[in-house]
Amino acid sequence: MSTTYHCCITLEGALNNWQFMTTTTSTGRKRHSTLKEVQEAVEEARSKGYEVLPPCDNVDERGMCKGHDTDLLKLNETYEKLEHKIAYLKHALDSTETKRSSFFERAGKKGYYLDVDTRKWERSKESN
């Protein structure tokens, strides 16, 4: 098992270098933080007794990352990728089924049907 650790920045370092700090928005996009946002984050960290800005939600009493199981992180990434792929395939299947239904409907209106035994399109006798 291997462990990954997030790097930390001291509270003073965050205030002195606020223009390089980033914030993740509610939509998951990253942008540069404002001085006010950094000051608020530093105040919150100080109120919890931290020496550094906590880089994640798995921190010790000083605010430093306690580490993350790399194998577990890889499993989570794989799971997320599979979830995304499944959602894509469901959408593709729904789309294909809609097209297929529409195709069969149009063929039926023109008097054709698919013979299950021969797997060939046949013209129905009523339409001749």
Describe the protein in words.
This protein has a domain at 3-66. The chain has helices at residues 11-16, 35-47, 70-109, and strands at residues 3-4, 9-10, 22-24, 30-32, 52-53, 68-69, 112-115, 120-123. The longest helix is centred in the C-terminal third of the chain and has 40 residues, at 70-109. A hairpin with a 4-residue loop joins β7 (112-115) and β8 (120-123). The mean pLDDT is 85. A two-stranded antiparallel sheet has the order 1-6. It has a two-stranded antiparallel sheet with strand order 2-5. It is 46% helix and 17% strand. The chain contains three helices and eight strands. By secondary structure, it is α+β, with helices and mostly antiparallel strands.
Largest sheet features: 2 strands, antiparallel
Trace the largest sheet across and list its strands.
1-6
Which stretches of 5+ consecutive residues score pLDDT under 50?
none
For the CA atoms, what is the radius of gyration? 29 Å
What percent of residues adopt helix (DSSP H or I)? 40-55%
What's the oligomerization state?
A: single chain
Report the β-strand fraction as a percent range: 15-25%
Structural class category: alpha+beta
Number of helices: 3
**What is the molecular shape?**
elongated
Q: Got a strand count? A: 8
The separation of the N and C termini measures 72 Å
The SSE order reads EEHEEHEEHEE
Average pLDDT level: 85
